[in-house]
Amino acid sequence: MVVCTILCNEIEGFQWRTLIDGNREAPVLLHLESKVLIDPMKLVWSKVKNGEQPDVIEEYKQVMEQITK
């Protein structure tokens, strides 16, 4: 959530949305111009599930690369 909150507050063009996936409802962040959809829970959970430590700075950099392609 931290990465998405920073992105939404600091970079124009992001908007919070609600993802409905079966039984799951989750806040996601959509970059309106590039249509990149960021699910903060999946960002963190995929790392934790693989035994890795989430790196907020690295996640921020990856998102910035995606939206500027």
UniProtKB/TrEMBL annotation:
<dbReference type="InterPro" id="IPR024266">
    <property type="entry name" value="DUF3806"/>
</dbReference>
<feature type="domain" description="DUF3806">
    <location>
        <begin position="1"/>
        <end position="60"/>
    </location>
</feature>
<protein>
    <recommendedName>
        <fullName>DUF3806 domain-containing protein</fullName>
    </recommendedName>
</protein>
<dbReference type="Pfam" id="PF12713">
    <property type="entry name" value="DUF3806"/>
</dbReference>
